[in-house]
Specification:
alpha/beta; 12 strands; 216 residues; single chain
Length: 216
């Protein structure tokens, strides 16, 4: 079991944010803190992930439709419009030189997408801004997207409720294709380890303060 060296955050998406937060509370005993809303019509709630009890720039993002969005249509971000229940969808890594990583990956035959400027409004009205890659559809969620927070304080270090991160990995029936795309990023142990197994899914293991280990 391992933790990606460059892990930034892990994304759990659901068709209803409040229900996803409640599902997570029932599973772990932790209530995610409100994160804010995005221009895309989504909103999130956050949980910090510690390692060996120490704060790290890692967090869990629970994301769903913004209840204050205009219209009833569900957003397509992270395939929210197709989900029936909370689902661990993908993850982000924060490499040095995000633009150079994109160039290197493209030269190796894999396009992680253009680097775009994004933002969200925190509950206190503060705007948080960052840059990340957005691959063209159909997107391969098994491969992480890249993120650069620039001068924005990292959310995982902001006094959120927290859980201990034990491990995070990817299971694949046939790992070769995913491994080829990960190798194109050139980030080594900065990305989640892939191992062969039944089904294709992420496996996240966290631990509560009372020592219980929970697999998500």
């Amino acid at each position: 079991m391992s933790i990606p060296r460059l892990l930034d955050h892990i994304v759990i998406a659901g068709p209803d944010l409040a229900e996803t937060v409640e599902w997570f509370r029932e599973l772990t005993g932790i209530t995610a803190a409100p994160g804010g809303s995005h221009p895309s019509g989504t909103a999130n709630a956050l949980v910090a992930l510690t390692v060996n009890g120490q704060p790290r720039p890692h967090y869990l993002e629970l994301i769903g439709p913004d209840p204050k969005r205009e219209g009833e249509e569900l957003p397509k971000t992270f395939s929210i419009n197709r989900l029936k229940k909370p689902t661990l969808i993908t993850y982000a890594v924060h490499p040095e030189g995000i633009d150079q990583v994109v160039e290197r990956a493209r030269a190796a035959g894999f396009d992680p997408g253009d680097v775009q400027d994004l933002s969200r409004r925190a509950p206190d009205g503060t705007e948080l801004a960052w840059r990340l890659t957005q691959a063209q559809a159909p997107r391969n969620y098994a491969v992480p997207f890249l993120i650069d927070w620039g001068t924005t304080d990292h959310p995982g270090l902001g006094g959120l409720p927290s859980l201990e991160l034990v491990s995070f990995e990817r299971i694949e029936v046939d790992p070769a294709r995913q491994q080829e795309q990960l190798d194109a990023l050139g980030l080594g142990d900065g990305v989640a380890e892939i191992r062969e197994g039944r089904g294709s899914r992420f496996v996240l293991t966290v631990a509560t303060e009372d020592g219980r280990e929970i697999e998500i």
